[in-house]
Amino acid sequence: MFNSILLQGMLGGGGASSLLLIGGMFVVMYFFMIRPQQKKQKEQQAYVDALKAGDKVVTIGGLHGTVTSVREKTVVLEVDSSKGVRMVFLKTAISKDSSAQIGE
Q1: Contact between residue 94 and residue 70 where contact means Cβ atoms under 8 Å apart
Q2: What pLDDT is recorded for position 97?
Q3: Phi, psi at 67, each rounded to 5°
Q4: CA atoms lying within 13 Å on the CB side of residue 11
Q5: Which of 10, 34, 86, 90 is the most exposed place for a label (fewest CB within 10 A)?
Q6: How many other CB atoms are there within 10 angstroms of residue 44's CB atom?
Q7: What 3-state class would DSSP assign to 37?
Q8: Rounded Cα gap, residues 15 and 8, in angstroms
Q9: Which residue ranges run through the membrane (predicted)?
Q10: Which of 64, 104, 99 lies closest to 85 in space, CA to CA?
Q11: How many Å apart are CA 23 and CA 44, to the nearest integer?
Q12: 74, 88 in Cβ contact below 8 A?
């Protein structure tokens, strides 16, 4: 069977099957790579849009903190409650919820 495929390719036959194969590869790539990535981006955007004061988060740089205020494009994180250290980050720098990970 493999030899017949090679012979068809060398003789110039099978143009429709080659097109079908390329189309099938695109469909597989869409469902296994592109679509899950788009879904993950939408979930991340929804999470960032829903941030509120008191949420415990981790930034993309790995900094753990508690949201003290949310502005249009930025959030203020309290990173050391004993000293009152607060830092301002872009909302896009918030990676994930860390309420379960702090202390581990």
Answers
A1: no
A2: 81
A3: -70, 125
A4: 8
A5: 10
A6: 14
A7: helix
A8: 9
A9: 6-32
A10: 64
A11: 30
A12: yes
| Residue owning tokens 């003789």 | 11
Q: Looking up tokens 């909302």, which residue turns up?
A: 91
Query: Is the Cβ–Cβ distance between 87 and 76 less than 8 Å?
Result: yes
Q: What is the mean pLDDT of residues 31-49?
A: 92
Q: State how far the alpha carbon of 84 is from the alpha carbons of 70, 76, 77, 79, 81, in Å.
A: 17, 12, 10, 8, 5
How many whole angstroms separate alpha carbon 101 and alpha carbon 78? 16
Q: What is the pLDDT of residues 47-88, one digit of tens each?
A: 999 999 999 999 999 999 999 999 999 999 999 888 989 999
**For the sheet containing 85-90, what is the strand order?**
85-90, 74-80, 64-70, 56-59, 94-97
- Show the tokens assigned to 40: 């993950």
Residue pair 58/48 in contact (Cβ under 8 Å)? The answer is: no
Q: Which residues pair with 74 in a beta bridge?
A: 90
pLDDT at 12 over 60: no
If we measure between CA atoms, which residue out of 45, 75, 83 comes closest to residue 67? 75
